[in-house]
Amino acid sequence: MTGPSVSSPETLPTPSGDAAAGIGRRISRWFYGRPGIFLLLLLLPPLLWLGIVYVGSLFALLLNSFFAIDPFTGMVKYELTLATWKQLFTLANFDIIMRTVTMAACVTVGAAIIGFPLAHYMARYAGPRIKGLLYLAVMLPLWSSYLVRLYAWKLILAKEGIISWIAAHTGLSWLLDALLALPVIGGPSLSVSYIGMFLVFLYIWLPFMILPIEAALERVPRTVTDASADLGARPGMTFRKVILPLAFPGVVAGSIFTFSLTLGDYIIPGVVGSSRLFIGQAVYLHQGTAGNLPLAAAFSTVPIVIMAAYLMIAKRLGAFNAL
Amino acid sequence: MQAEVRFDHVTCMFGSVIAVDDVTFDIAEGEFFTLLGPSGSGKTTCLRMVAGFQYPTSGHVYIHGKDDTRLPPFERDVNTVFQDYALFPHMSVADNVAYGLMVRGVGKKARRKQAEEMLELVRLGGYGHRRPIELSGGQRQRVALARALINRPRVLLLDEPLGALDQKLREEMQVELKELQREVGITFVFVTHDQTEALSMSDRLAVFNKGRVEQIGTPQEVYDRPLTRFVASFVGASNIVEGPLAERLFGNSQPVSIRPEKIVLSRDGEGIAATIREVNFIGAATRYRIAVDGVEEAALLVTSPNVLTGDNAFAVGTPVRLAWAKGTTQALK
Description:
Chain A: This is Putative spermidine/putrescine transport system permease protein. By secondary structure, chain A is mostly helical. Chain A is about 70% helix and about 0% strand.
């Protein structure tokens, strides 16, 4: 036979396409028919990370708290015992826990009280321009270094700082002195008092409260609050019966941040406030300086337990009903 | 007779945009009154001014003879069914319905009883313990109705309440709403952009266009006697005959509206000579586009019912005669 053949395989492209250039296409087709495998591939790295690196090490930590340190050698004895846990609940250590939890609770309540009106304004009243500016204002502090902000506050709160200066120039020194004269939460100056520490915590964690509340309020349709007013509810009633319950999951989410971040922080109590320890500092001291890893581990389970209890109570209260 | 709702020279502006432009009309007690118009025509703004969500820029809104122009919504004897139902997602159906009573300080037991009665009324008895999210669109619609009716308002406002429902459910709800209104005897003010809905449900309707009321009347009046071009073309389909065609058909060039179904076609006999240009089978009827002989550039729309089955339609190009009964045409302003 002579002449080109129309049916020759060289001249007619096969419908499935050119093999060499179609690898990506073939992979896509293969995965398209097997979505389960694709999902597994996507989820494998985060699952490994969360499952093994994170949860695994958490359990290792928990396990450590059931060992104890040998008082003579200072070495960890790998025998299961509750001695370390007993030690955790001695008066001094219990004090640390109560101090930290109280501070975390105060910071959370304070952040919610200050954060809610701003979040409410941002979500329901601010125009797009003002809302953008407010977002920026809320997040901007997060862009700068935590330590820089912390030391800035140390200066603000110091005896020679701007707060004392303003108080002196407005004739309000008596108010500041009265505040500092309060038992327990007062002190020689704001920078070495619990009031000062509270202010710093409040400032540092406030964005973590505002943003979730704002997101929750953003999801409340205008017509739902209109309906409440339409049915005869005055603004206060609408707020209590409709806005607050619908924003509550956001408040809980925000409080999880502020509460757990305060519980675990070990830098702020070291820079501002008295020399009394907080949980984070205790963990740091016991595992670092003292080499008492079991006690450090026992300390670090405290915030986990508290948070678990907190979430359970929040669920009981119906915090997640509107989700 | 005293009007239940009265708009007295009401104007509402958003910035420099006039949403409602010097509107005056009355709604009688116990009436099913519809505000009909395309989106942006001002009908919803009018409804919001009755509810109190929007205050007019000028003019007065009277409810049951009292000037309520600037009374906040929670002090008005008026309740609203919202387009998106606006049920409280964190409350049970019963608590949603009883909300108006709770606000008024009615005790828990009485509240529960009345809410259950209200749910019976909208045929949702026994659904009280459910959450709104567990209900279908039609059921949520009824919960919204029950919630708005429980305070026995003077006026019930309905903001396109059937818009989100599918066609069949919509038609059922139209009948149900009408029956409910007769049962409770409350004035209903209904907003819609759907002219069939407006025609089939209303005692009277107001046709809105660009912030103004173009015409108010019973469905028949508005359909048969449209006063303006806009009403003629928005409420039902219409041929607006003008220019040379009007000259040819009516002897003068004043615009006239004639409904497509009022024109009768015949193969021979009396009437104006015309030719079929286009044939369109639409099930219950056949729609023709017809050119009147001698005025080729204008076309008339004619629908004729398919009384017989099979292919009895006129074919394209067929010469026909047009006729209509006296009084079926309407001169327009």
